[in-house]
Design goal:
6 strands; alpha/beta; Nucleotidyltransferase, domain 5; 22% strand; 6-stranded mixed β-sheet
């Protein structure tokens, strides 16, 4: 199973980015192998609109089953739900800590958007 974590940096010691659509990037982590890779999200950071949908396409194309982030907006939430990607919000600390919290069942699954659009 692969998961994506919004990140302020390029490795698992980086902090979780609270934003989804305008996150600096994503760490895609394979829960079975333990391997991680960074996917840049610079094209969406300053986008006037559509950042959440484009970011959703990025993580969907990476083949993830779950997303860990601080917050997710309504359009991104809808796109991820349609692709059967589970979302877990309220993450903080490092990406490594978020992965551990996910494994320990400490994160809340988002049944709806946690912020308004253009956040």
């Amino acid at each position: 199973m692969k998961i994506a974590i919004t990140s302020t940096g390029t490795d698992t010691q980086s902090l979780v980015d609270e934003r989804f659509g305008r996150a600096k990037g994503f760490i895609v982590h394979d829960m079975e192998s333990g391997a991680s890779e960074y996917i840049d999200n610079a094209q969406n950071m300053d986008s006037p609109q559509g950042a959440g949908i484009q970011a959703a396409k990025t993580v969907i194309n990476a083949g993830v089953s779950a997303l860990i982030t601080g917050h997710v907006g309504p359009k991104a939430h809808a796109a991820l739900i349609a692709a059967h990607v589970d979302m877990f919000t309220g993450a903080s600390g490092t990406v490594d800590q978020a992965i551990q919290d996910f494994q320990d069942g400490k994160l809340t699954q988002a049944s709806q958007a946690t912020v308004e659009g253009h956040w």
